[in-house]
Amino acid sequence: MDEWYKDFGHRPIVRYYKLLRLDGEKSVEIEQFTFDRLRRRITSTEVRTIPFKAWVDAIAANSVHEIPEAEVPFLFHF
User: Fold this and answer.
1) Sign of the four-CA dihedral 65, 29, 20, 16
2) Which distant-in-sequence residues (6+ apart) come within 8 Å of 27 by Cβ?
3) Residue 52: is it exposed, middle or buried by C-beta count within 10 angstroms (0-12/13-18/19+)?
């Protein structure tokens, strides 16, 4: 799965999420990257498992939104 999500807003510290695994309607496994836009570097990474409903609610509330992989600033694009 190469689905990427980002926190809504334009703050100096932004969280990006890579969807790793979807376990039916029970849970979602994501890798969370905390990115410092001013220094242009990742400050932390963490793999988290969250309830499916919490993930869907965050998307519905527009707290996170899907973005194309090309918009993830710390990935190399060839």
Assistant:
1) positive
2) 49, 50, 51, 52
3) middle
Q: How far is CA 42 from CA 16, 34, 75, in A?
A: 10, 6, 11
pLDDT single digits (tens) 10-68:
789 999 999 999 998 899 999 999 999 999 999 999 999 999 999 999 999 989 999 99
DSSP, res 8: S
Cα–Cα nearest to 3, from 31, 42, 38: 31
Nearest 10 degrees: Cα torsion 15, 77, 70, 39: 40
DSSP character at residue 72: -
